[in-house]
# Entry
Amino acid sequence: MTLLLNRPDLMRSNNFINGQWCNSISEARYPVQNPATGEAFTTVANSTDADARAATAAAHAAFDGWRQQPAAVRAQFLKRWHALILEHTEDLARLISYEQGKPLAEARGEVAYGASYVDWFASEAVRTYGDIIPAPVSSKKLMVVKGPVGVVAAITPWNFPLAMIARKIAPALAAGCTVVAKPAEDTPLTALALVALAQEAGLPAGVLNIVTSSREQVSNVVGAWLDDSRVRKITFTGSTAVGKLLARESAATLKRLSLELGGNAPFIVFEDADLDAAVEGLMAAKFRNGGQTCVSPNRIYVQEAVYDAFAAKLVARVQSLRVGPGDHPDSQIGPMINARAVDKIEHHVQDALSQGATLLTGGQRLSEGVTNGPHYYAPTVLGDASHTMELAQDETFGPVAPLFRFRDETEVVEAANDTPYGLAGYFYSRDISRIWRLIDQLQTGIVGINEGALASESAPFGGVKESGYGREGSRYGLDDYMETKYLCQGNLA
Ligand code: NAD
# Structure
């Protein structure tokens, strides 16, 4: 498997600060691995706090110029960037697939999905309306205007190397903010290519800056942003543990925060559901990206009367999934991102089996044939799962579907909400009254009702409880990057 690009110059390996591509000031590098083989194939800058501060200085210096541009000018830039992303779909998809592992067809879908946020916020940029408020006295006029929050630090995970960073940079730039970004250490190349295309689209120097760093250096880099009062907002997607750390550490300078954190999504199949639709919805939600998705169902509750029929249909579908390298045309599930990820999956499955779960299919690493690499795991269905198992408490982030049996609605709602997390929840039912009861009772920011594919640039994506706060996408998404300024003019005759 080799990485061939139509535009080899999109494969960048340095930081981009103040309009210049540059190595880390320390000149340190770290290796990037192909998850299909576990082999390092290139190196990128291993940045330190000094690089992070240089990025902040550039973003701070560029802020006034960018925010004062008419919104239509910022929108034009986003439109050009959007066109370039689509024009280079194939190269971006190859980069995603090569560094993250997902099948090429899925990677192409991610490019389209990430690009849709750029397009969306190009249109939203010119709609950041204010308000006129009826004044309580005739001598005053009360008004509200919206303005950008300032320099934004964007920190992203590896599971969607393009979409996660695009859906932060696009609203930030649309609002008039400038950006310092740090992609996940496992998947820096897609983000760097995206920034190269932003440069090509004519973005002024300093408006968008990106630094890469290894896991060992990350607290150093992000720490420099947390400590700096010029950084006014952190937008983060990743684990709840790191999200909480960012909330604590940014308190000294009271930064705005958007936190898109971990989930533990329930997927409920009631006895009145269309079982075939529920199986298809689960296949899309659970096995996309090999289950490495924050809205991926982690606990699948099936009502007693349909449990056996649902399990049989699901197992048949899961057994038909083809696992293999991302560039293999037949692959539907690629390798997991790294050794840590496969170890966690294996541990969750072993723990569940030792506590009485039944193995319905899968349940082991794959290391033969096209899956001859260290990070493949078989699509797995477990029966008779229970709440004491680790996989019920913590997202597995892999292709493992554990089935929990339930008796009635009250019991399942209580079980579904019995988690500190609250990102997505799904249920399948044809009972209209039940549907509205569940909508009201599920403690999640996103609810899938007879639907497994939820994400859209036109909808607000985000969680409640320890899945974080803030929303990405839709008209709500821009507010996260804007301040509300109240104007009161007095002494009017
Ligand atoms: P992670 O929290 O380990 O890493 C995410 C980012 O944080 C990376 O860029 C990483 O370098 C950085 N980071 C790690 N340690 C840090 C520290 N001490 N200080 C500052 N930054 C640090 O998460 P991950 O394992 O890479 O990603 C998977 C997680 O992301 C899962 O929990 C998943 O549910 C979540 N996720 C959430 C959403 C959402 O929209 N809610 C979307 C995708 C993924």
Notes: The longest helix spans residues 104-124. The pocket of nicotinamide-adenine-dinucleotide is lined by residues 155-159, 182, 184-185, 218-219, 222, 237-239, 242, 245, 260-263, 294, 395, 423, 463 (CB under 6 Å). The chain has a mean pLDDT of 97.
